[in-house]
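Training component of the fellowship. As part of building independent skills, the fellow (R.M.) carried out the full modelling exercise for a liganded target. The chosen ligand was 5-S-methyl-5-thio-alpha-D-ribofuranose. The inputs are recorded below so that the supervisory panel can assess the work.
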Amino acid sequence: MAKNASFEALTVETLPARLGALETLAGHLGKDVSAWRVREVGDGNLNLVFIVEGEKGSVVVKQALPYVRLVGESWPLPLKRSFFEYHALVRQEARAGKGSVPAILHFDEAQALIVMEFLTPHIILRKELIAGRQPPRIAEDLGLFVARTLFRGSDLHMTARERKVDLALFADNVELCDITENLVFTDPYFEATLNRHTPALDPLVAELRADRDLKVEAQRLKHLFAANAETLLHGDLHTGSIMVTDADTRVIDPEFAFYGPMAFDVGMLLSNFWMSYFSQSGHEQGGSREAMRAYLLETVTGIWSVFRAEFSRLWRTERTGMLYARSLFEDRSDALGAEQALDRVLHDLWQDLLGFAGVEAHRRILGLAHNADFETIENEAKRAVCEAKALRFGRHIAVNRRTIHSIEEVNALAALIEKGAYS
Ligand code: SR1
Ligand code: MG
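Fellow's submitted model of the complex:
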């Protein structure tokens, strides 16, 4: 049978008839399929997303397409990403706790669709930050989410067999890794066909593309990304993959999940807050964003400090895997040795996350997939000023990551660049 033979993309019109017989859906929405209201709301780069409302409630139906939605059918992309997303959601809920991701109601592998809880009144975090709102829980919730998923998905916690079997399962997510490998680590640093950038950035872009230290660092990071299968990553953890209310935080969209370096998720996440920081001056028509900028830097500090505290707690209480075995440390009355090892692990993670954060900022401004923080700044001259700051910041932290010692130092650098006092 041909690949994807039975697959058929849903439409607003066909969805009720095609999914109406599913008991779980009828249970959530009500049996009267003719009363279901369907909207397609997908605004991401890859998939279809429907909100379905019935007399009893509502659900989200997410369906993969056999190509990249952003580009079209000329860029085929396997439907199996939906399988990886489903399995990642299951693991993330088990590791970070119920309510950290949307609840799954149904998964259909052949149709590459996941039916899940409709999160309401949640809003995409990126949109909130662009609007200048300050959700109060995110530092705590996101710091815990990354610490728990990264620690519990690694050889620090899992048995060697369990992790290796899981590693084999996710190893097939080749095409989505390939997107990251090219779009994040390589394309921004040369004139790749699908790249685009704000024209006023031309001189700076030429400077960055001629920067040998930066290119070498980007390739070392790519090497780390591809070769260090340390833990199950979300793989695309930016502020567009997080939905919030003032009381709740959910991480969505882990279709890029695979086994990679812990620092990748943390670096991507923090980078998106730093980009938001540099974008704020482009959104100041409604008044000063000074308080918003302070909030964003506090959020970065908060996420990193919650992450470190929780990771350290798990290190002391759940280090049941084969790495840094207790038989070498605690069981030999050498708890201090375990603390020294923890320090080393966090130190390496810190240096790597700065690198990943730096290249993430570059690819969102120079590559194919831009982010709304900058894209929604209509005045092109203003947008270029914001983007240039983020580009310089990204270059500095990627290239100098081994000599930067604290989050306060990085935030001070961001503030310096924002004020125009850095060259
Ligand atoms: C072709 S996909 C472009 C980007 O969209 C996704 O959200 C990932 O960030 C990917 O790099
Ligand atoms: Mg996504």
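The panel noted the following from the submitted structure. The longest helix spans residues 335-366. The mean pLDDT is 97.
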